[in-house]
Design brief:
The chain is α/β, with parallel strands linked by helices. The protein folds into 3 domains: 44 residues, 434 Repressor (Amino-terminal Domain), CATH 1.10.260; 136 residues, Rossmann fold (3-Layer(aba) Sandwich), CATH 3.40.50.2300; 131 residues, Rossmann fold. It is 42% helix and 15% strand. Helix 8 packs parallel to helix 9. The chain is elongated and about 85 Å long.
Length: 345
């Protein structure tokens, strides 16, 4: 099937019997051209299906006004909030986002990075996949001095910025809260220890136990992919533990809800038998009964801060790009899933 010939500014000028320069200025919203003439040109451009030649313009300016984004999963309330924050800042500064999903795969993340690099994005925002170990696919960006910002799941890389919360502190507070409710047999459900967020949350959990002189048990740490299905699988393991744990701290809300639902179906009472704390403060936390205690994690703000810092470096207002970490606040939100003291046994 043959494609129609692309409409050019020459076609618009010929149709309206005006100069090419006038059409060009009008399409750039130059104040030299009257509003009436601009409207005539805009109306005809729309009618004829004219598309501006961004490619040619980009070659002149060395900018595409696009920012690449790589996230692990699109079907995540937290990531949706992050993207909304990114969109808010990017749009206000005249940038578009190109969003890609790694599906928790290092290989797909590499392919995404290559595609975005070849599409000449002006900067890159990344949250790493579960299994990413090598960072070589980001080297072309660093060599070209294309701003690189990691958020949430970050990595220490030269000439990059990391945006995150204090995951160790947040996990410490979550575990300490459970201990304050008389819970001492606390299971932690987490994900791959290749990622900083899960390493830090495990460390915070262990530190809270140590400070309260509670022995850390390797068999009380369950590693999965933090899906609702993984939560149900973890529930089956927890139900077999002797004695039965009296609390569970989960590294995200989605998995926590899956675990809670499965345990309730097995006859376990929450929080009477087992108290729960999740992480992220996803909307699902207030749908499950009882409502889930969790860590409020500012996704929208994280997206804004990441994008604002990237654009600041593009504009040169932040000086030369250097490796640094920006820590955002988080807070424990106590709800009924953990609210109720239990006597030590």
């Amino acid at each position: 099937m043959n494609r129609e010939k692309e409409v050019t500014i020459y076609d618009l000028a010929r149709k309206l019997n005006i100069s090419i320069a006038t059409v060009s200025r009008a399409l750039k919203d130059d104040p030299v051209v009257s509003k009436k003439t601009k409207k005539r040109i805009a109306d005809l451009a729309l009618e004829m299906g004219y598309r501006s030649n961004n490619f040619a313009r980009n070659l002149r300016t060395q900018r595409t006004n696009t920012i690449g984004v790589i996230i692990p999963r699109i079907n995540s309330s937290f990531m949706s909030a992050v993207i909304a924050g990114m969109e808010n800042i990017a749009t206000s500064e005249g940038y578009n986002l190109i969003i890609s999903q790694s599906s928790e795969s290092q290989e797909k993340e590499k392919a995404n990075a290559a595609t975005l690099f070849n599409n000449r994005v002006d900067g890159l925002l990344v949250s790493l996949a579960y299994d990413t170990e090598s960072m070589t696919h980001f080297e072309p960006f660093i060599k070209k001095r294309i701003p690189l910002v990691f958020f949430d799941r970050t990595a220490d890389q030269p000439d990059s910025i990391c945006i995150q919360i204090n995951n160790l502190k947040a996990a410490y507070e979550a575990t300490t809260h459970l201990i304050s409710q008389g819970r001492r047999r606390i299971v932690h459900i987490t994900a791959s220890q290749k990622r900083n967020v899960y390493v830090d949350r495990l460390q915070g959990y262990k530190q809270a136990l140590a400070d309260q002189r509670i022995r850390f048990r390797e068999d009380h740490v369950i590693v999965g992919n933090l899906s609702q299905e993984a939560g149900a699988d973890a529930a089956a393991l927890i139900r077999q533990m002797q004695p039965l744990p009296d609390a569970v701290f989960v590294a995200n809300d989605n998995c926590a809800v899956g675990c809670m639902i499965a345990l309730k179906q097995m006859g376990v009472r929450i929080p009477e038998d087992i108290a729960f704390v999740g992480f992220n403060n996803d909307p699902v936390a207030t749908v499950i009964e009882p409502n889930l205690t969790t860590i409020n994690y500012p996704g929208y703000e994280m997206g804004q801060v990441a994008t604002r810092n990237l654009i600041a470096n593009l504009n040169g207002s932040a000086g030369s790009l250097s490796t640094n970490t920006i820590i955002l606040r988080s807070e424990l939100v106590i709800r009924d899933s953990s609210n109720g003291r239990k006597s030590n046994t």
